[in-house]
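Q: Hi! First time doing this. I have a protein sequence and I read that you can turn it into a structure. Is that right? Here it is:
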Amino acid sequence: MTDMDEEEGIDITEIGRNDPRPPCQLYLITPPKIVVPDFLSAFHQALEGGTIAALQLRLKDVADDEILKAAEALLPVCEDADVALIINDRADLAKKSGAEGVHLGQTDGSVAEARKLLGADRTIGVTCNDSRHLAMEAGEAGADYVAFGAFYPTTTKEATALADPEILSWWTALSELPCVAIGGITPENAAPLVEAGADFLAVSAGVWGHPQGPAAAVKAFNQLFGTD
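A: Yes, that's right. Below is the predicted 3D structure, encoded as structure tokens:
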């Protein structure tokens, strides 16, 4: 594999990382459907629990206008809290909303197309499932982070396969690009992923559905990371 940091000019500090790798951080994902005022309340509660690095706006089967309205409401809250707002799937909506960047699935267009649209200073992440090959391709194409998973069964998104935590160790030994672990992650089952080298844990139901509320979940994750 080429030295992606030099060959592609990637600035890995764009989402708060450099080498050596700091402690793992929390990357929240919204529920697939939200009522914006209610979710804003839940997000404020989550922020009270501790540090959150990013929030991915992932709304399914809703109109573009609804996504843009949700982004408009969330963006100032994210900016005030130093949280990167990432739009799922749609680079065009990331551009229109003024978000920090976009997270691309394997069928959501190329990194090159997203980069041309968003510019060099925006963050582009790519879903790589449990594939080392896809991760290497994403890195070489200029992605700012790669996401592996699902690591555990999840009801948030249909997982075609379960990933082994070893893929995180492999990636962090190979590349400076941050890696995100995703899929069914809770404060109770996250430790092996942190130990394996995940730079970020992407969590949805593990925070929004936590029995003690979002703040308690975020606090528990930060305690696990040693950053509370």
